[in-house]
Amino acid sequence: MAKEWENNKESFDVIDVRKLTGNFLPMVLKKASNVEVGKGICVVQNFEPIPLYSALTDFGFEYSTNKISDNEYRVYFYREKMIEHSKPTTTDVPLKPTAIVNFSNIDSNLANIAVNFWEYTWDKKNPAIDIKTKLLLSLSNAVGAGRFRQATRELVKAYAFGVTIPELDELFALFAWNGGFGAFASNIGPSAPFGAYQYIKKLDESGKKRDEITKMLVDKFGERNPRTSTMFKDKVRMCEKIAGLQNQKV
Asked: 61-69 and 40-45: which strand pairing?
């Protein structure tokens, strides 16, 4: 049954993110933060933007989704109330799943499969495994598989959700134990996740607080870093930049 606010949804400001190749979530959240109670926005995407649902309901929005075609979804978000959070939520976690956009560049149906699986694993209601444990498990699996890009992103998120330095110390000791000293020295030691881990310890020893460290982590090991970004466009730009510098030297 449609709610009363849906009678006015066509008057909502429209945010069309279909042509964006980067992480559109921060931009949508910034615009949503300025929406008054009783007002709304409409987000247009070529796959169902499921991660937005929990992100905006955490801040007092209701939503209604219209599938216009296989390549166009319109989600209307209405702000029913203002909500502020004193503890981190899935909305606050840095380094959102930007790789989903890469799937949409192949096929919108593939993107829908990816986003639904993401919701099942990471945004499940009443999960049996808490978010910190999930992130540490995902970090460990990524290191074991040599996926250091993913491992770094999971480490940043785990720290943002309260994982402590002693917990990280024990985790990296387990990597040395399970993989062997040689593998740790040649593969993990020079890797981005180990660099992020050492960066956390250095900043903590200098007296910085967790929220400060998290922001600095995202700046250093976030989407602008080609070793941790999941966006193809970023890598192309970096290659072009490197090529340009090499040409200047010649």
From this structure: unpaired
